[in-house]
Specification:
By secondary structure, the chain is an alpha+beta fold. It folds into 2 domains: 117 residues, 2-Layer Sandwich (60s Ribosomal Protein L30, Chain: A); 163 residues, Phosphoribosyl-aminoimidazole Synthetase, Chain A, domain 2 (Alpha-Beta Complex), CATH 3.90.650.10. 31% of the residues lie in helices and 23% in strands. The chain contains 11 helices and 11 strands. The strands form 2 sheets. Strands 7-9-6-10-8-11 form a 6-stranded mixed beta sheet. Helix 3 packs parallel to helix 4. The radius of gyration is 20 Å and the shape is globular. The two termini are 28 Å apart. The N terminus is likely disordered.
């Protein structure tokens, strides 16, 4: 089976001869491969760069607006092509959790407590029963993140969406005191890199997921290989709602020692962790220092996806990364909530996989 990896991706183990002169997190320009999933991560990064040139200050996980002695912190997102699987499985009651999670998880990286959320639901013809299930998930997501659902917008757009399909987007606003903002500026070599486990694929990489499904010939109702004593279908593993980290992260912040936080979304470890680092510093990540859920192992094998591309597309079982003082990290690792010591901050650039 041909590889589905994106252009220039190199195996972390460097068994690929194309990677002979490349570091694990550096593309080899002479070995370009087609992007079969139809999503160009580099193009997205280039757009962010151009937007930042027009509106300096943009580029963080959440946008900060000064408001008295605090900042209002806002984030917006959708669910992406994970919706396609919800349509296929006729399961609509958790996709709203994903919608809320993608925004509140972004703004909590600044140390902000989410205050409210608004949604946008668009469809060709309104099916009230389906819409009710979607909103049920949004309400649950707001409950988990302890923020208010203020309202939203429902739009019927005949002939724009396929029958039975819909799209979702939304935004959240939170606040944080100016002297409590977490922005990564104090990160230093030797700090600990701590990961909080994900519930699965969350809401990124589903264009590649759907390509792998098509190539594998497997069904969403097939049992997921390697699921152990708790049988799980591929579909239910993929549709597992995005974990909302608000309560856990705010609790960790309150204990002290947190210097930077990265939400692991599109771009995976490789693109998201460096976003919170000062220039000249890198994250050294020890591959194997945490438990990778079976769904990622299946995606890698079924799609013949190179390891480097897995780390640039998926969260690989870690949905949030915190950069912390070593002593503070030790206390978190001993706590009741699961967390993993992924590695440490070193001098360098990007993410270095060991």
């Amino acid at each position: 089976m041909e590889s589905i990896a994106a252009s220039g991706a190199c195996s972390l183990s460097q068994h690929d001869p194309c990677c002979a002169t490349a570091s694990p997190n550096t593309a080899a320009p002479s070995c370009a491969r087609p992007i079969d999933a139809g999503v160009d991560i580099d193009a997205g990064a280039e757009l962010v760069r151009r937007i930042a040139a027009m509106a300096p200050g943009i580029g963080g996980f959440g946008g900060l607006y000064p408001f008295g002695d605090s900042y209002l912190v806002a984030g917006t997102d959708g669910v992406g092509t994970k919706l396609k699987l919800a349509f296929q499985m006729s399961k609509h009651d958790t996709i709203g959790i994903d919608l809320v999670a993608m925004s509140v998880n972004d703004i909590v990286t600044s140390g902000a407590k989410p205050m409210f959320f608004l949604d946008y639901f668009a469809t060709s013809h309104l099916d009230v029963d389906i819409a009710e299930q979607v909103i049920k998930g949004i309400v649950e997501g707001c409950r988990q993140s302890d923020c208010a659902l203020l309202g939203g917008e429902t739009a019927e757009m005949p002939d724009f969406y396929a029958p039975g399909e819909y799209d979702l987007s939304g935004f959240a606003v939170g606040s944080v005191k100016k002297d409590a903002v977490i922005d990564g500026s104090r990160i230093a070599a030797g700090d600990a890199v701590v990961g909080l486990p994900s519930t699965g694929v969350h809401s990124n990489g589903f264009s590649l997921v759907r390509k792998i499904l098509a190539k594998s010939g497997r069904s969403l109702s097939d049992e997921l290989p390697g699921a152990g004593h708790s049988p799980l279908t591929i579909g239910h593993a993929l549709l597992a709602p995005t974990k909302i980290y608000v309560e856990q992260v705010l609790d960790i912040i309150a204990k002290g020692g947190v210097k930077g936080i990265a939400h692991i979304t599109g771009g995976g470890f490789t693109d998201n962790i460096p976003r919170v680092f000062p220039e000249g510093l890198a994250a050294e990540v020890r591959v194997g220092s945490w438990t990778v859920p079976p769904i990622f192992k299946w995606l890698k094998e079924a799609g013949n996806v190179e390891e480097a591309e897995m780390f640039r597309t998926f969260n690989m079982g870690i949905g949030m990364v915190l950069i912390m003082e070593q002593m503070a990290a030790e206390q978190i690792l001993k706590g009741d909530e699961p967390a993993f010591l992924l590695g440490q901050v070193i001098n360098g650039e990007g993410v270095v996989y060991k």
